[in-house]
Specification:
The protein has about 190 residues and is of the alpha/beta class. The chain has two domains: about 50 residues, no CATH class; about 130 residues, no CATH class. Helices cover about 40% and strands about 20% of the residues. The protein is built from seven helices and seven strands, in the order ααααβαβααβββββ. A hairpin with a 6-residue loop joins strand 5 and strand 6. The chain is elongated. The chain starts with a helix and ends in a 5-residue tail after the last strand.
Amino acid sequence: MAFALPLLALLAASLLDTLTEWMRRRELRPAWLPSALLAALLLIPTLPRMRAAWRSGDYPGLSARLAEVSARLRPGDVVVTDAPRWGTPLALIHGHSVLNGDFFHQRASDPALLAVGLNALAGLRAKGHRVIILTSSRAGMSYFPPELNTVSLLWTSGPFQLNRVIHSQRGNRFAVTEVNLEFQLLEWRPPTE
């Protein structure tokens, strides 16, 4: 099945070329007619799905919410997020230094690896960086191991909802669900500080 789409594209291009050549030999006008017919044949059956997909974006309103978060951060802050979907725009669009909090979540059962991460955060604080933890659910800091819970709350967005698009495995259908979120910014300090 991996070759189905490239094969379809080649067949469509071949058909288009054959039709165009046929029209050219007979000096039929307009020459763009085969292209328009082929495009119509390919697009018309997918119009309802295309229209539904256009109307339902993934996480509409997220940009404004992350701009709120970014406005509360200072230059030089290092943000530890509980999900890469928040960290990536904060890093690429807003220019903040972001760490994936999954490291701490996944290493909670390994004290040696967890200590490496905590020492790295302590080193960043020692160099003058604030370490800010961004949580996105009402569970807040319970996502992270207890060793990371020496925090003070800086800001909370309050509860809000965003739509999330769930795609089928084949990518031919999708559903939209509501996700309940609540952003919190918490400043982390090592327990020894």
